[in-house]
Amino acid sequence: MEVILSETLMMDTLLQTAKRNAMKYSKPKDQMFAYGTAGFRNRSDLLDSVLYRMGLLAVLRSKLTKGTIGVMITASHNPEQDNGVKLMEPMGEMLIPEWEIFATELANAKDEDVATVLQRIIASASIDTTIPANVFFARDTRSSSNTLAQCLQEGIETLHGKYSDFGLLTTPQLHYMVRCHNSQGAYGQPTEQGYYNKLSKAFLNFRKLVSSGSGDRGYSPKIIVDGANGVGALKVPQLISFLEGTLNITVCNDGTTGKLNERCGADFVKIQQRSPDGLSVIADTKCVSYDGDADRIVYFYVDEDGSFHLLDGDKIATLFAGYIQHLLTLSGLELNLGLVQTAYANGSSTRYASQQMKVPVACTKTGVKHLHHQATEYDIGVYFEANGHGTILYSKRAEELISSTCGNTSLSESQRHAASCLECLVNLTNQTVGDALADMMLVEAILYARGWTIHQWDHSYTDLPNRQLKVKVKDRTVITTTDAERKVTTPPGLQSAIDEEVAKHQHARSFVRPSGTEDVVRVYAEAGSQILADKLAYDVAIHVFNLAGGKGDMPRPPDA
Fold it and tell me: Which letter does DSSP use for residue 554 in this model?
């Protein structure tokens, strides 16, 4: 009884210390924060209080789960002046929704109410505060990240949590290390070198398995990487050193000149549908763009006529799903394969997957957490957002069946070989989250096995021309949606107006959805030609502006 009382008093003392320190990292007046799929993001000078408080919250989450929690300091594809923070679950997943609510409540509490909110979280989640806590954290290359890391560290220390500071990492690398640590090494070694070792071993083993078969034929190992002037650019040379010269990679936008994500990176290339600045494109050469924290990837190339070709998350997803399906057929493995997309997926990719590849396709709301959850419904779930964020999930049953098939001597050699190839792909995949480095390795492995040029991959299907626009509004919450964000329910009249515009064009589709972080409405349109896609996006944007409380200048016509 005395021990319990002393531990309770100790926690009460720590909570009061947390309250006093909250005054040191005071919340900006009238500033409200919201934890979403991307965690918290804002101007870096507004985030000291958020980072300190997320240090406190990470300790409580660690105590409840009895595992190590990850905290990444990054704003991904946002501009250099922004920053952010996101928390990771013990198996490397994103923070669960119930704790997103706790995070938002704690971030927005008045300084003097921090201890009260912490006590409420402890009571609500029935946290045993005597359990030890451990936190892994890392940061991207933003100049503000070091200062914010100090705020986070003080939050962890305030509640007597232990921590490991991994310095500069990509976001997926930290996800990987958290899972490795909490699985006691079953998923891999929780170090940066362990990450490179696992990926490179799987990649090299896969190449050996397929080299006597399809070989490399038209495949080229030459790749130009746009590192977005971010942390991914720093990690590619380290990965290359493990690959025994199998890939010829040149890194541009490596941070020595240029600003983070400024006119470069996966988001810029996807939205602008053009090559990034800082990269000298060679005709018909594979190019890759990461985002600022290297959890997104898109491929692109420029042909001999100077035309730009984008191979985004949709193209990557169908490449993965198609080859896995091929290996499943060869191995005789009866596993349920599915592809998960969002409304932003190009209509051509959905038809190609469902009609030609015969792979079931599911559509979810925008946000990686929604896709990741849906992908767990399959034995093998491939999920990607069109922006290039995605990965492959293998169920425990799938991994066990693949492994046992590799060594099953009652099966034919070709069946065991296909299963061995699939096992290499399992080990080459970062199943915790989208990972630009791991996804690039998967793409290169499959292209090598297929013997494909980037042209052959690109021509697997033809994207419908599309356009994305943003419309500033007074209040984004006036837009509500249904059917995985493909239909608008409010404001009245908007969906019927969109339907009327779509009906004017062949092979057309359009939808709108509110941004999760700012008062803008995102408009997506696709049609049979780029001119028609541009016109449809503009016409729908005008309806959004008029019916949803547009703010500032009216959307400009495509030829303006």
Answer: P
